Every structure is written in C-alpha cells, then in structure tokens.
Amino acid sequence: MFEHPQLEALYAVVRLGSFDSAAAHLAVTPSAISQRIKQLEDRLGMILVERGQPCLPTSAAEKLLRHRDQMHLLEKTLAKDLGQSGAALATVRITTNADSLAAWLLPMLAPLKGFLFDLIIDDQDHSEAWLKRGQVAAAISSRSQALQGCDCYPLGDLRYIACASPAFVAEHFPDGITAAALSRAPALTFNAKDRLQRDWVTEKLGTSVPMPTHYIANSQAFVEAARLGIGWGLNPLSLVRDALANGDLVDLAPDMPFATPLFWHVNRLTAPALAPLTQAMKRVRLDDL
Hints:
By secondary structure, this protein is an alpha/beta fold. It is 43% helix and 20% strand.
C-alpha cells in the first residue's frame, strides 16, 4: 500500500529532525526527501511533517511510522521462516528507564544479533505510555499488568541504595535521617518524573518532606554527584557497590532495603520477531545484581 522509499524518508526525517540529515542518512538529495514526503502527503491528503527545527511528526505520521516498524519486524520473521540468510537488520524501539540502561541492559543486549536497537529513555512509571501509543515495540516498566495486546514478564526487583559521601553525611545528617535534615540537605533527582527519593523519604519517615534538589538526568553522573558530595540520592546497588565498599559512599539506611519491580512488556503483533530478545529478558535476574 505504501512505497518503501517514502516511508523510509518519513522515518529518517522524524528520527533525525531535518530533511538535510535524512538526505545524508539515505544518501540522496534533500529535494528527493522533500519529494517523497510530498508524494506521501498528497496521496493521503494530510500533513505528515511539521516543518521546523526539529521537524516533528503529526499524529498521522506516527501511525505510519508504527506501521513501518511493525512491517520491518514482521519481514524479519518471514525471512527467518523462509530460511533466508543475510536478512537486513531490523530496528526495534524499546523504552527503558535510565538506571536499567546503566546497570544491566547493555550487557544483556550485547550477545543478540540481527537487531538495531533504538532505545528511548523514560521513567519506569511512564514508559508504558510509549507502548500504548504504538511508538515502541517493547518497554521496560514498573507496571505489573500487561497492556492490551501485549505480553508481560517479570524481570525482578532493581535494588537501590540511598547514599551520599561521608563528608555530606557528616555535614547534613549528624543526627541521622530526620525530616528537618532532609528539608535542608540537597537531594539528587533525575528529572521531574523521578519519584524515587520522595518515595524513599515517605517510606523512611512515614510522611513526605519538601526537599531542595539538584536535577541530574544521567545515571553515571548521578552516582558521581553523590560521590563528590553534591547531594544524596538513590542509586542502583550495582552502580555503587564498589564506592560503598571503599568508603567513597555511605548507605544512609542499611536496615531499609529499597527496590523497584520491573517488567518486560512486548507487543504481541511483533513478539515472534522479538522472541530472542524476550527470551533473554526472561533470563534476567535483577535480584542478583
């Protein structure tokens, strides 16, 4: 129904943000990209790309791109079923939280062949929204119930440690973790969606506390900020184990374990093409990290 070059042009413009970048990626001229997009828009009688810096997809374009991604994955399954070797790599879009990406996801993906990964970073409490909109084929999420049209598999609990540098603890928590101290001690927060620090405080004290905070949207930098005494925050145990062992960081509540359950959600339509990925996910044991 839709011509492959036109869909690929649309995909490149939306993913790269401009007609020039799309042209360079597809090794054609910008005018060729513009012509393909115009042909597709004329055929459908609707605008697909909002021209700007960057170019943005309309809702119709998002539906077409979802179709394009699904077709690529289904073609991969068909090629395998027909015994075709050397099939083109299939791009699979996955939503993941940043801590999973930093702590365990990449070593799990490394052995898998035949895929090009397009990883979308979002909070684990919001990642399933991408799957609902059809913008990804799978998601790592804190949601325990399968979305409509999807399968859901438990990954285990990603364990966190509330920690800070020894100097930070001595300065801000000389009398322990109290509401008064937390209201003055700078916290670390990934972004506006990040509730980990607030949830930890509520569990620790039984009440919420207004806290000053730094926003640092990078998992490795988050650990480093805690190590340097910029603030306190929750970090995946696997990322701070060495720093805790050598004394660079101090566990603020050794008697209070804190963990986030995570689940793998995969669209059933493209699940056969993603079977190797799902099998690898089902072998993940976050509790052992």
